[in-house]
């Protein structure tokens, strides 16, 4: 696994073929956004074909958390990778719906669905 920040929101990274499945937990907010972006950038640097972020453990997300995900989507696309979000709570999902980012990100209920998508 890539080296993560000491207070990383990333709990685990597992590889399924060329897909990185990243388990995220905690509050994705301004206090954690820089370290979160850095940790995700390190994973993207390993050039997965697909980046799957499992957000089931995310208890809160603010605009800086959303901005971090938008930046990572851009980085993933720059290397030809797709990025998928899974396991969102209703609260987090509503943020993506309000901001219309549910039309920008590929959102799935489970990791298996994301891994099976093209």
TrEMBL record:
GO terms for molecular function: anti-sigma factor antagonist activity. Residues 9-118 form the STAS domain. It holds the Pfam family STAS. InterPro entries: Anti-sigma_ant (IPR003658), STAS_dom (IPR002645), STAS_dom_sf (IPR036513). Belongs to the anti-sigma-factor antagonist family. This is STAS domain-containing protein.
């Amino acid at each position: 696994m890539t080296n993560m920040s000491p207070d990383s929101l990333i709990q685990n990274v597992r590889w399924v073929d060329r897909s990185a499945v990243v388990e995220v937990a905690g509050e994705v907010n301004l206090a954690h956004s820089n370290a979160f972006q850095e940790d995700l950038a390190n994973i993207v640097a390993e050039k997965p074909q697909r980046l799957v972020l499992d957000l089931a453990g995310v208890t809160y997300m603010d605009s800086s958390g959303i901005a971090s995900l938008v930046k990572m989507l851009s980085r993933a696309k720059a290397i030809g990778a797709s990025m998928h979000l899974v396991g969102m709570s209703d609260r987090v999902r509503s943020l993506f719906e309000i901001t219309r980012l549910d039309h920008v990100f590929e959102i799935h209920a489970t990791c298996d669905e994301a891994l099976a998508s093209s």
